[in-house]
Amino acid sequence: MTRSESVAMSIEVATRLQYIRKKHGLSQRELAKRAGVTNGTISLIEQNRVSPSVGSLKKLLECIPMSLAEFFTFEVEVARSVVSRRADMPNLGNGSIEFYLAGSSVKDRNMGILREVYQPLADTGPEMLVHTGHEGGVIVSGQIELTVESSTWLLDPGDSYYFESRLPHRFRNPSADAVCEIVSANSPPSF
Prior knowledge:
Blueprint: H1 3-23, H2 28-35, H3 39-46, H4 54-62, H5 68-73, E1 97-101, E2 112-118, E3 134-141, E4 144-148, E5 151-155, E6 160-164, E7 169-172, E8 180-187
Antiparallel strand pairs: 1-2, 2-8, 3-6, 3-8, 4-5, 4-7
Helix pairs in contact: 2-3
């Protein structure tokens, strides 16, 4: 199996597991409880961050119940996803900065829309970010310090920004005790 075939299989497992779990009315927590694993494990599999072994997948499917053969041969009904519920939005960030992607199941997305949560004193790092496209956002709560090239601004709730992402930039929450939340968009999507 080539690397691209392995990646495609992993994505298929993630998509199929989430689909079948929801079809049977199970939360990630309930499936995890039945299988004797953490709900974080289910979340990581469904986000395609980890690939379960055949044995682990079989153990999960026994809790539904479904055989491996059924799992890989049923037809996935493609539903048009219009709404992203808070619990279904994957966090693409890390411990200090959370990036929740709206419409994560939409294929061939033309833009990325994120709910960004910056913990106190969190920043995007000492290295300035540079990538293709454009990005913009509106500060919902807290404050964010935005640096683009050699200019820095302190933005408050209701303030917004928009710039070409090829310009070196970084974000920093200057507060030692308040979280900053932003709703942002980028095109082409970087997530």
